[in-house]
């Protein structure tokens, strides 16, 4: 058998979207491993490469042959292989003939239906050179692409038009045809610096050969190069770059040969709020804004050019001109917008539809005024401030700057509110009420912003549920899951004891007479939706599914309290060796109480205790009850569980010493009432019977 050899596969494309390059590389790396495994080909490490113009895989030590493939064929039951005279049946002879052997050569295989005739065929090993082209084609068609493009008159498709293919194992170029192209042993270099072909003589030399052709093919290496060069240049300028990870990834995905340069703009533009300047530079131009030593923006920026120019100043001047035009638009709108107050703009919101069936955005602000003021005590903020902030929070949607840069909605509203003379609490609430807009965004830092953000998200959730626009499967066109997650993140990260049942009830009440007929059903659906989101959120925080079920069955509507219970329960199970045994004991109590009916709110009467173990348990409970309820009232669940754990020896002795379901109905009811008192204490925290092992 030939020694294993490295494999190299490359698709050369038109420019791949920057944000989809790493997901594409990761998917390709995962899928190629699965396909090689399925074909029986052994291999070593897999290294993926992606640039704007290519997706490539270098797989080390791919075996030259697949192992012989065994196939086990099943025939008729042995009992039906011969007739009553012992002669072979037609079915048995036909099976033997199809296998190319005599009846006596067949095997007998035991199955769930009884012994059957069988034949084991061993196919020949297959050469990897014959298998790999088909594997390469399966890889390409299996890639999870968000959108596919067709080009020319071909029926096949890819993320972007494919311009060349490369498939090589060792020194051998393999016969792979796809997209009307035949694979060769060549790649292509940088579009400007090295547009010619690049001969790849061995897979291991792929990255080095392209580096000579002015292509940094490794995404991680290219990213580190960009980050390092930007840090070095910023250091020389005595500034700090604003370079979030997402922007660095996008810049990396836009360049094959990144050259880091610094541009500048007129200092007069710094009068525009920095959020607008940063949005223009980062989101529209993929430039890196800079802060000076005083923490403020400076009139300079960094950018990556995808080539090394002999006259870099020409490149810098060109980028300066592009940025200047965008900043001029921002400055113009900033000046114009401040001439009309948010209050004046508000009336025109009546002509802007929020959602068919839910009225205009003006109608939404009316609901938000009522809801934000109602929720204000939960956030310890002034109801009047929240009413005013809700009144004005959507007015900036009609401003020129937000119309040009929709990413700035809310943020610019805060600036305009301050310009109009609104107090800082109102302006801050307006500026922060869209947060968090994404999973990785920060929550509002101010309680006023938190209150208005939750009111806004609850209004959207309840409204869309009311008109039947509910997420199904993977479809969530109105981002309702994101809205619910935003509510949970604010409540949990800010430590707000918000009761979702009460909040949803207030939200639906703000709709007035609308949806009054089925308001109960809407409320239940929204609360169920929140519970599903809480389960997902708490699982992502590391809590077990059974712990979450145990807690949410007792506290389904107050996320902060539910998390506090989860933390205490998880700690209790981790640190108390008797936790599982205690859960089993509680389940026994639950089973007894489920089968028996306790007469009313029957008090526990010690005069009916017939065994010392009953007195022992009762005395322990009486000593425990007051401090336990004090701990529960203060939501000190870990301490409460510590107290409850001390009950176990007395409960064990109780079950060993008495027959709970005594024939005497008075004794039975008294003992059940005692157990019910214990059950109620545990249920104040969680339903222990739902824990695994219980």
From TrEMBL:
Record domain DALR anticodon binding: where: 587-680
Subcellular location: Cytoplasm
UniProt-listed GO biological process terms: arginyl-tRNA aminoacylation; glycyl-tRNA aminoacylation
GO molecular function, one term: arginine-tRNA ligase activity
Superkingdom of this protein's organism: Bacteria
EC code(s) of this entry: 6.1.1.14
Substrates-to-products reaction catalysed: tRNA(Gly) + glycine + ATP = glycyl-tRNA(Gly) + AMP + diphosphate
InterPro entries membership: DALR_anticod-bd (IPR008909), Gly-tRNA-synth_bsu (IPR015944), Gly-tRNA-synth_heterodimer (IPR006194)
Record's keyword terms, sorted: Aminoacyl-tRNA synthetase, ATP-binding, Cytoplasm, Ligase, Nucleotide-binding, Protein biosynthesis
Entry's Gene Ontology cellular component terms: cytosol
Signal peptide residues on this chain, from the entry's feature table: none
Keyword Nucleotide-binding: yes
Entry's family note: Belongs to the class-II aminoacyl-tRNA synthetase family.
Record text on subunit structure and interactions: Tetramer of two alpha and two beta subunits.
Identification of the protein by name: Glycine--tRNA ligase beta subunit
Taxonomy of the source species: Bacteria, Pseudomonadati, Pseudomonadota, Acidithiobacillia, Acidithiobacillales
Name of the gene encoding the protein in the UniProt record: glyS
């Amino acid at each position: 058998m030939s020694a294993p050899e490295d494999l190299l596969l490359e698709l050369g494309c038109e420019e791949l979207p920057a944000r989809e390059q790493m997901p594409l590389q990761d998917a390709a790396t995962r899928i190629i491993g699965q396909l090689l495994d399925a074909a029986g080909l052994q291999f070593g490490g897999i290294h993926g490469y992606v640039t704007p113009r290519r997706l490539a895989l270098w797989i080390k030590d791919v075996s030259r042959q697949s192992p012989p493939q065994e196939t086990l064929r099943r025939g008729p039951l042995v009992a039906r292989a011969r007739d009553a005279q012992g002669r072979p049946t037609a079915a048995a002879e036909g099976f033997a003939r199809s296998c190319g052997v005599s009846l006596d050569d067949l095997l007998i295989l035991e199955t769930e239906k009884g012994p059957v005739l069988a034949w084991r065929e061993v196919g020949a090993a297959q050469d990897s050179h014959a298998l790999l082209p088909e594997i390469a084609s399966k890889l390409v068609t299996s890639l999870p692409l968000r959108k596919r493009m067709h080009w020319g008159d071909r029926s096949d498709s890819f993320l972007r038009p494919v311009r060349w293919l490369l498939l090589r194992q060792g020194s051998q170029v393999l016969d792979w045809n796809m997209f009307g192209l035949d694979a060769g042993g060549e790649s292509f270099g940088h579009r400007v610096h090295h547009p010619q072909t690049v001969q790849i003589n061995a897979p291991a030399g792929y990255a080095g050969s392209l580096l000579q052709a002015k292509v940094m093919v490794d995404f991680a290496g290219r990213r580190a190069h960009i980050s390092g060069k930007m840090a070095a240049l910023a250091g020389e300028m005595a500034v700090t770059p604003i370079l979030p990870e997402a922007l660095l990834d996008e810049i990396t995905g836009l360049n094959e040969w990144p050259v880091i340069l610094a541009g500048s703009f007129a200092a007069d533009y710094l009068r525009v709020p920095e959020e607008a300047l940063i949005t223009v530079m980062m989101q529209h131009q993929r430039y890196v804004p800079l802060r000076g030593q005083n923490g403020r923006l400076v009139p300079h920026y960094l950018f990556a050019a995808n080539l090394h120019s002999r006259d870099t100043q020409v490149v810098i001047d060109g980028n300066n001109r592009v940025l200047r035009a965008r900043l001029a638009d921002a400055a113009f709108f900033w000046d114009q917008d401040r001439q009309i107050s948010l209050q004046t703009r508000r009336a025109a919101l009546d002509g802007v539809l929020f959602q068919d069936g839910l009225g205009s955005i003006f109608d939404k602000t009316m609901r938000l005024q009522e809801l934000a003021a109602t929720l204000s005590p939960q956030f310890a903020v002034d109801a009047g401030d929240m009413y005013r902030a809700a009144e004005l929070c959507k007015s900036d949607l009609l401003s020129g700057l937000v119309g040009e840069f929709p990413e700035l909605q809310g943020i610019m509203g805060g600036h305009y509110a301050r310009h109009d003379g609104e107090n800082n609490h109102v302006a801050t609430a307006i500026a922060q009420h869209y947060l968090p807009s994404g999973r990785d965004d920060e929550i509002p830092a101010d309680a006023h912003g938190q209150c208005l953000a939750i009111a806004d998200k609850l209004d959207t959730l309840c409204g869309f549920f009311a008109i039947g626009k509910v997420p199904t499967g993977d479809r969530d066109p109105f981002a309702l899951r994101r809205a619910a997650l935003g509510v949970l993140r604010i409540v949990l990260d800010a430590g707000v004891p918000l009761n979702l049942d009460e909040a949803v009830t207030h939200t639906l009440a703000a709709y007035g007479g609308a949806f009054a007929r089925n308001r109960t059903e809407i409320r239940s659906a929204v609360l169920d939706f929140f519970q599903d989101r809480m389960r997902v959120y708490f699982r992502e925080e590391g809590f077990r599914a059974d712990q979450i079920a145990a807690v949410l069955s007792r506290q389904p509507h107050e996320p902060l309290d539910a998390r506090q219970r989860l933390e205490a329960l998880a700690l209790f199970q981790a640190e108390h060796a008797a936790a599982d045994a205690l859960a089993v004991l509680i389940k026994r109590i639950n089973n007894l109480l489920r089968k028996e009916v306790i007469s009313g709110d029957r008090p526990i009467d010690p005069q009916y205790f017939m065994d010392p173990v009953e007195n022992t348990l009762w005395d322990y409970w009486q000593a425990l009850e007051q401090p336990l309820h004090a701990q529960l009232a203060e939501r000190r669940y870990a301490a409460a569980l510590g107290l409850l754990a001390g009950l176990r020896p007395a409960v064990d002795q109780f079950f060993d010493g008495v027959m709970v379901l005594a024939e005497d109905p008075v004794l039975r009811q008294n003992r059940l009432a005692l157990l019910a008192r214990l059950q109620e204490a545990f249920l104040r925290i969680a339903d222990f019977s739902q824990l695994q092992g219980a």
